[in-house]
Write a structure and sequence with these properties.
alpha/beta, Alpha-Beta Plaits, 2 domains, 11 helices, 14 strands, binds adenosine-5'-triphosphate, binds magnesium ion
Length: about 325
Amino acid sequence: MYTIEAEHLTKFYGSARGVVDLSFTVERGEIVGFLGPNGSGKTTTMRMLTCFFPPTSGTARICGHDIVREPLAVRRAIGYLPESVPLYLDMPVRSYLHFFAEVKGVPSRQRRQRVEETMQRCGLEQYAHRLIRKLSKGYRQRVGIAQALLGDPEVLILDEPTIGLDPRQIIEIRNLIKELGSSRTVILSTHILPEVSMTCTRVMIIHEGRLIAIDTPDNLMRRIQQTPRILLRAHGPEHELIRTLAALPNVRSVQRTSTGAAALDYYQIDTEPDGQVMSEIARVVVEAGWQLQELRPLDITLEQIFIQLITDEQTGPRPC
Ligand SMILES: Nc1ncnc2c1ncn2[C@@H]1O[C@H](COP(=O)(O)OP(=O)(O)OP(=O)(O)O)[C@@H](O)[C@H]1O
Ligand SMILES: [Mg+2]
């Protein structure tokens, strides 16, 4: 049995599209990332899965319970970190978690132990007495995650768990999520690409309310990075530079990037997969005396991924 099974999940806000026809399954022990730009439908999907509101059509089962017919059982199976965590700022961390343990129905005999364990798990012990108001954003986020964990849920649904955190906190929260994922099922949302490759076992890419890809991060990157792209900054006669580089084996195309005066000496070079042309480009540029200033692989952006996947959807995947 799958932990999560969504069948044709669809949500319209009046006539406005939330998400359309999402079907997917998630197995126990997976960490699945919903990846999509603003407004693509990540929060809408999570709100349906957590029974915040019902779907317009379609349904989903969480641990075998239907989100439309059995919302109470679904809520018991789920811990949810909403997009903005509504914390009670004037409560100290420990009291706040005790309060929520009670709300979540943790039996009073187990409550103390559960709260202490959860605080320890989320690295909150040293802040047990601190008012939530006085915590940094990252630690507030940890309190939100602790709150989601209190009922010891099978499934954790985390809406942008690392948003607004500094790089150190992001790493800590990612590690925490990975650790949590080892014993339960986690769905998280993000619009940051590295987030999914670092944390998730599978990625669901949502674009304009529709699911356009679901796969492991490695497979997706392989599908997308069929044209590795290199950035070059060098001073040289434009036409000659482009002509020379374009003539190199494994170079598909060379373009001067045209995003304002500061970018005048930047070139974008598309290469064959596994072309290994970096050292050849460097050699040619240096030998010609074109003042090599920068040469590096260009990270693929989320936008490029969408463009690539949507193009693939329309034209069929390109041969490898
Ligand atoms: N309460 C609402 N009423 C009307 N439309 C809504 C409502 N909530 C969301 N939408 C619309 O549904 C679509 C999906 O929004 P959603 O919040 O699910 O996106 P998201 O992927 O979570 O975006 P973000 O990355 O900005 O959090 C958007 O077009 C949004 O405008
Ligand atoms: Mg959202």
